[in-house]
Design brief:
It is found in: Cell projection, Ruffle membrane; Cytoplasm; Membrane. This is Acyl-coenzyme A thioesterase THEM4. Pfam families: 4HBT. By secondary structure, the protein is an alpha+beta fold. The protein has one domain: Hotdog Thioesterase (Thiol Ester Dehydrase, Chain A), CATH 3.10.129. 13% of the residues lie in helices and 31% in strands. The chain has a six-stranded antiparallel β-sheet with strand order 1-2-4-5-6-3, with helices on one face. The longest helix has 12 residues. It is globular, with a radius of gyration of 16 Å. It starts with a helix and ends in a 21-residue tail after the last strand. The model has no long low-confidence stretch (mean pLDDT 92). It binds Palmitoyl-CoA.
């Protein structure tokens, strides 16, 4: 298993210039939102678009709340992780301090949605961000969100103990 220290150095290398249109790297291979090796994960694939990020995503039976409808917590997990890709357009890591979602309409299983997010302003350590999720076929907006991320130093990530499949794979 890769050590946490190795992972942190891998993460640090991801904070580089990412050309407009390029796919952004996963946070790590086991990440619930974007890790390729997490069987329970959402496997988000996120691209830079200008000063923002964009992704397409379809929820499935693993994320069911009411029949045929995605669980609100699963939707929040995707939005939260999606915001985590905006960090690659900044100079270093930050974590979610505050996350607000307006569920405008049910998010349906098996339906493709487009997510978009951008940074609205920065104040010292604070990154204020916003996101939307809309049905691809109809452009109908189903979620809008704001969040506050706070920049942290590497020590923040040394508070946890890596377990299980954490660290397997590159997460690139
Ligand atoms: C090189 C290594 C690379 C590693 C690269 C890793 C990649 C990274 C990706 C990981 C994957 C991403 C996935 C998605 C993102 C997650 O899911 S992150 C996980 C969920 N979030 C967490 O676990 C964070 C838990 N919370 C904490 O650890 C601490 O609260 C924090 C966030 C570190 C902040 O602690 P703190 O520094 O003590 O904060 P505090 O002094 O209370 O507040 C700081 C400022 O914010 C203000 N503030 C606080 N709350 C609010 C609010 N709600 N509204 C307005 N202002 C507020 C305060 O008033 C204060 O303002 P100032 O007085 O400074 O002006």
């Amino acid at each position: 298993m890769t050590s946490l220290e190795d992972l942190i150095s891998t993460w640090a290398a991801k904070f580089r210039t990412h050309p407009d249109g390029s796919r952004l790297p996963a946070h790590h291979a086991a990440c619930l939102g974007c890790g390729e090796n997490n069987p329970h994960g959402h496997h988000l694939r996120v691209h830079r678009e200008g000063d923002g990020v964009v992704a397409r995503h379809t929820f499935d039976e693993r994320h069911v709340g009411a029949p045929g409808i995605a669980h609100g917590g699963a939707v929040a997990a995707v939005v939260d992780d999606f915001y985590g890709f905006l960090l690659y357009l900044t100079d270093g890591p930050a974590v979610t301090r505050n996350l607000v979602l307006d569920y405008l309409a049910p998010v349906l299983l098996g339906v493709e949605y487009e997510l978009r997010a951008n940074i609205t302003r920065t104040e010292g350590r604070k990154l204020f961000v916003e996101a939307t999720m809309s049905e691809v076929a109809t452009s109908r907006r189903v979620v809008c969100s704001t969040a506050l991320f706070l920049k942290v130093d590497v020590g923040h990530f040394l508070q946890g103990e890596p377990t299980g499949s954490f660290g397997q794979g590159s997460g690139q």
